[in-house]
Amino acid sequence: MSTANQAGASHRIGVQLLLLLLIILFCVFPFYWMVTTSLKTQVLALESPPVWVFEPTFANYTEVLGKDGVGKTLINSLIVAVSTTVLAVLLGCPAAYALARFEFRGKKDLWFWFITNRMVSPIVLALPFFLIVRQIGLLDTHLVLILIYLTFNLPIVIWICTDQFRAVPFDLNEAAMLEGASQWRIFRSICLPLAMPSVAVSAIFSFIFSWNELMYALVLTRNEAKTAPAMAVSFMEGYNLPYGKIMATSTLIVIPVVVFALIASKHLVRGLTMGAVK
Amino acid sequence: MSATTRRPTIIAFLGPSVLTLIIIGIGPLLYAVWTSLHYFNLTKLKQVEFIGVENYATVLSDSAFWDAMGRTFLLLGISLPIQIALGLCIALLLHQPGLTFLKTITRLSLVLPMATTYAVVGLLGQVMFNLNYGVVNQLFGFLGFDPINWLGDTTNAFITIIFWDIWQWTPFVTLVLLAGLTTVPSEIEEAAKLETKRWTTILRYIQLPYLLPALTAVLILRTADTLKLFDMVFTLTRGGPGASTELISLLIQRVGFRAFDQGLASAQAIILLLVTIVLSQLYIRLLYKEVR
């Protein structure tokens, strides 16, 4: 009886093991393929059927970073993503504090507005934004992307941080108020330091979303402020596609995001559902 | 707590971000409403004129618009059930005891597809599903199939889009459902496991009630995200061949920026926005009970 049970148990563990490995393979394989293709020469990349074992070369990387100017677009992406994240955190934290601590009319409508921002398709704003920006001559500047990315970053930051500020014990507020501290002082010196982990998580989200964004970048930039994803897309024009170079650029784009996402992996669900599922 | 907070204080805390969002969010939106009521073509800017709701009438009777909407919901209708089924199975697997280390690795690798830049997913799709050089056809070849023209055929291109949507978002569904599973009180789950050995019974009567919020969130967010879906499809197929993978966001982008008819595109976008607002309402009503 007990041996049968043990056999059953180890059999079940075996099935589990197999399934888990399958899932990992399914998730990781496209990555593996992206990285290996980026290490192939163009001739090798166009081999039919594809080759699995080959002499890797970094030629694609040196070429895209040097001659093709992908380096500059990566820097553009970095400038835009960091600036919009800093702005979103600076503007969003006080707002989150207000939503967590103050009672006022229209609070529900404000929440609803933020949620709607999470859902709205970027194309809805891309159309008018393009026309306005074109009128005032700001097309193809970092500023435009930094501002429009706030439309999705600010709600995310406010959302995640509000949750955290709520978790800070209210006793601390009351004690500080008895001491005569202003709300700003309480926010700066007591609540913000305690909410720092969440602020960091929301900053990571804001960075990832901005870094990954393509549509606004495609519509609102041309050369000067072109971001890395928009650059990767522009390789797709023409007949003979430079697969190695496209995959090298893709790898360069994806690696920082993956690192950040792994750091924040515990909070991914909370961030993507705006706190509805913890 | 609240009665003592003065109005100026609230405005000082909330004002800057609300003002920013009004300027960059609401302002352009109002402009889009204005554009949608005009004949507004980027190549004929001299001829901008007020035409009332004519653009809306055109959109609502335009088969291209409804076809794109139909394709968007077809994609959702096919890939979401698969994502939920797969996601639930994987979540239940990860929820089982044992093999802790390997499960941690699995959870981390689930993060990879979600984090991948959407545009890169499309580019990767082009490389992997290429007719001649693609690894997918090579793998199919090992199984004895002839090479399949994935991206050049209308049906196959749509299947390719479905595949990548499933690859990228099943992990999201999995992690949301896994978060839901952990809300089941362990005493109840343990007690149920003593009563029955059938996991379907436990799922149906014990776990499902706790999974409902997670499922609702998945349903509404995946709907909204599919309506938003642009980057991956744009880099993979540009909506083609023909219009076979032209989802709603791609249609609006094409009308606005490649056919230059900003008026019509704005009308389409406003209609899309109205759908989105309804979805957001649902999301809040069903999931944020403490707010309402």
Considering the chains and any ligands shown, give keywords for the structure.
heterodimer, A: MetI-like fold, 2 domains, 76% helix, globular, B: 292 residues, mainly alpha, MetI-like fold, two-stranded antiparallel sheet, 12 helices, 1% strand
How would you describe this protein?
The complex is a heterodimer of chains A (about 280) and B (about 290). By secondary structure, chain A is mainly alpha-helical. In chain A, about 75% of the residues lie in helices and about 0% in strands. Chain A has 13 helices and no strands. The longest helix of chain A is centred in the N-terminal third of the chain and has 37 residues, at about 1-40. Chain A starts with a helix and ends in a 6-residue tail after the last helix. The model of chain A has no long low-confidence stretch (mean pLDDT about 85). Chain B has a single domain (about 60-285), classed as MetI-like fold (Orthogonal Bundle). Chain B contains 12 helices and 2 strands; from the N terminus they run αββααααααααααα. Chain B has a two-stranded antiparallel ribbon. The longest helix of chain B is centred in the N-terminal third of the chain and has 33 residues, at about 65-95. Chains A and B meet through helix 1, helix 4, helix 5, helix 6 and helix 7 of A and helix 1, helix 4, helix 5, helix 6 and helix 7 of B.
Alpha plus pi helix count of chain B: 12
Instruction: Measure the end-to-end span of chain A.
Output: 42 Å
Reading off the top of the CATH hierarchy, the class of chain B is best stated as Mainly Alpha
Integer tally of domains of chain A:
2
SS content category of chain A: mainly alpha
Strand order of the largest sheet of chain B: 1-2
Put simply, the count of helices of chain A is: 13
Strand content of chain B: under 5%
Mean pLDDT of chain B: 87
At CATH level 3, the topology of the largest domain in chain A is MetI-like fold
CATH architecture assignment name of the largest domain in chain A:
Orthogonal Bundle
Number of E-type strands of chain A = 0
Gross geometry of chain B: globular
